[in-house]
Amino acid sequence: MEQICSSTNLNQALRRVKKNKGCAGVDKLDIDATIFKLRQASNGQALRQSLLDGSYRPQPVLGVGIPKPSGGVRQLGIPTVLDRIVQQAITSVLSDIYEAKFSNSSYGFRPNRSAHHALAAASRYIREGRGYVVDIDLAKYFDTVNHDRLMHRLSEDIADKRVLKLIRSYLQAGIMRNGLVEQRQRGTPQGGPLSPLLSNIVLDELDKELERRGHKFCRYADDCQIYVGSEEAAYRVKESITEYLEQKLKLTVNREKSAATRVTERTYLSHRFGIDGTIHI
Length: 281
Prior knowledge:
Helices cover 44% and strands 16% of the residues. The chain is α+β, with helices and mostly antiparallel strands. The chain folds into 2 domains: 7-98 and 147-185, no CATH class; 115-143 and 196-275, Reverse transcriptase/Diguanylate cyclase domain (Alpha-Beta Plaits, 2-Layer Sandwich). The strands form 3 sheets. A 4-stranded mixed β-sheet has the order 2-1-4-5, with no helix packed on it. A hairpin with a 2-residue loop joins strand 9 and strand 10. Helix 1 packs across helix 4 (81-98) and helix 7 packs antiparallel against helix 8 (161-171).
């Protein structure tokens, strides 16, 4: 926790949040107002002390719906600016721990990795003769992450119980919609700096399982495709990985949207592939 609360780390987090801009949360304080408040009297020191002694309490996130390009609405949970600063401070420290552990086949929300790299890897697997794909669709992934399983996973690498308590308090902070706060028992709402890292930590277990089985795959956040050499293998992998996700990771697979088929029949990150691995928009 001392590393998270260091002046250097908190100031870097503040600058990062300010650069990313974004709207106010439930306290209606924008970035400038929050910074002004932190710099008044001893508010900055009070923040550090509350984090160190465990008395800091995150506020509920503000529920906001934004239209998806493909239709429907994506639900975001916007933390207050102060909570975004604290989340960013946590993320900066934990990223140093987990980046060294993450799979090379994971491309989303990671430094020096992008959708372009994921597509290039997928193209390479297809060119190597893997003409079938297992496309697993996780139903409302960010809303269904099991808190207890995530916290158990974090406790394997984080010894400081204050950090674990703070992360759990963010997971359970609740979400405000239409002036009412709904409590959350699961999920990591999209909208804060910490959520992408936590989502990768959860699905790193899937990555490790796929690697253990010797599969070639690409995962960008919750978009995961596994490339195999035959239709029979595709169906077999689809069934076994679906069982693993639901029984071991306690996630929900959308069976109607998931598929085991030729690579030419599916898109990945809004792109299509030719049977020779060429990428088409």
